Amino acid sequence: MRAEVEEIMSQVAVETLEKLAFLFAFPGEDDGSQPWDPMTTVRVSFSGPFSGFLAMTVSIGVIEELTANMLGLDDGEDATENQSSDALKEAMNVICGNLLPAIFGNEVIIDIGVPEVLSPDQETEKGAEIPGGLEPSAKVKLELDEGQCVLFLFLDAGIPEDVVSP
Amino acid sequence: MAINILIVDDSGVMRSMILKTLRMTGVPLGDIHQAGNGREGLDILEEQWIDLAIVDINMPVMTGEEMIDRMHENPEMKEIPVIVISTEGSKARIDRLEHMGVAFVHKPFTAEIVRDTINRILGLGEHDESRS
C-alpha cells in the first residue's frame, strides 16, 4: 500500500511542478549515497477524515528556479527572500491540494492548513528527516536539473487499506 | 470593453501568476486590483467598479467562500461574476460553489482554461477576444 501512495505522490508532484513552474522532475533513488544540496523544508498540515501533514525538502537551486519561473523573472533578475518563501509555500499548497484527493478520493472533505517554511534550526543537517524523528507514512525523492526535492507524507492513522488510486 | 478585475489570493506570487496568465489570455484588461484576503477584497469591491472577481478559497482573515457569501448578501455585489481559482479538491465544496453561480478553476491552471472560463462566465465571444 505504501508503494501505491508513493507512486501517487511522485506523479502528483512531477505534474504539479511542471504545470506550475515548468520544472521537470523525475523519480530518483534515495540510497543515501549522494551528497545533499543545501535544502529548505516546507510543511503543511491537514485535518478531516484523514489528518497529518505533508512536508517537502527542496534544494536551494530548485527554489530559485521555482520562484523565477512562477514570477516570470528575467535572467539576472533575483527574487526576494519573501518571494522565494511565498513561491515554496504556494507550490506546497498546490501539491497537497492535488495529492490528497488523488489518494483519498474527492468525496471526502479535508481542510488544508497554511503552509509554513521551517526555520533552519528546525531542519536536520541533511534535510532528509523531519523534526521529531517521525517515520513518514510515505516518502519520495525527485531529481531535477537544479537539485532535489523530497516529499514526506505523515498520516496520523497510517495509510488506509482502501486507498484510492488516481 | 476593458474588464476591471479583482484578484484575491493570500499568495503574492500566485497573484502575480494569475496576472501574468490574464495578460496571456487575450481578454481585454482594464484596471487590475489585488487583495490578500476576503476582507480586503470586499473593501475593494465597495470602492471600485469591478467586472470580475478571481478568488482563492483558503486564505487567512476571511476565506474566499465567506467573501462570496458576503457578496451574495450585498445587492451591489451579488451580480459580480466570480471565478474561484483554488487547490480545493472536495467535490462537495466545488459543487456548493458552482451552485452559487461561481466558476471553478483548479490549480495548477493554464492560460487556455482561464481564458475559456472568463469567456464563459462573462459571455464573451470570439469578437471580444480579438480586440485585445
What does this structure look like?
The complex is a heterodimer of chains A (166) and B (132). Chain A is α+β, with helices and mostly antiparallel strands and 166 residues long. Chain A has helices at 2-21, 60-71, 81-104, and strands spanning 25-28, 39-47, 52-59, 111-112, 116-117, 138-144, 147-155. In chain A, strands 1, 2, 3, 4, 5, 6 and 7 form a seven-stranded antiparallel β-sheet that branches. In chain A, a hairpin with a 2-residue loop joins strand 6 (138-144) and strand 7. In chain A, helix 1 crosses helix 3 (81-104). The longest helix of chain A is centred in the middle third of the chain and has 24 residues, at 81-104. The model of chain A is unreliable at 124-129 (pLDDT under 50). With 132 residues, chain B is α/β, with parallel strands linked by helices. Chain B contains six helices and five strands. Chain B has helices at 12-25, 38-47, 64-73, 91-99, 111-122, 126-129; strands spanning 3-8, 29-35, 52-55, 82-86, 103-106. Mean pLDDT of chain B is 92; it is low at 128-132. Chain A binds chain B through residues 16, 19-20, 67, 70-72, 82-83, 86-87, 89-90, 93-94, 96-98, 100-101, 106-110, 112, 114, and chain B through 11-14, 16-17, 20, 58, 60, 86-93, 107-108, 110.
Please provide a brief summary of the model.
Chain A is of the alpha+beta class. Chain A has helices at residues 2-21, 60-71, 81-104, and strands at 25-28, 39-47, 52-59, 111-112, 116-117, 138-144, 147-155.
Order of helices and strands of chain B: EHEHEHEHEHH
| Head-to-tail CA distance between termini of chain B | 9 Å
Mean pLDDT level of chain A: 86
DSSP helical segment count of chain A: 3
The general outline of chain A is: globular
Q: Order of strands across the biggest sheet of chain B?
A: 2-1-3-4-5
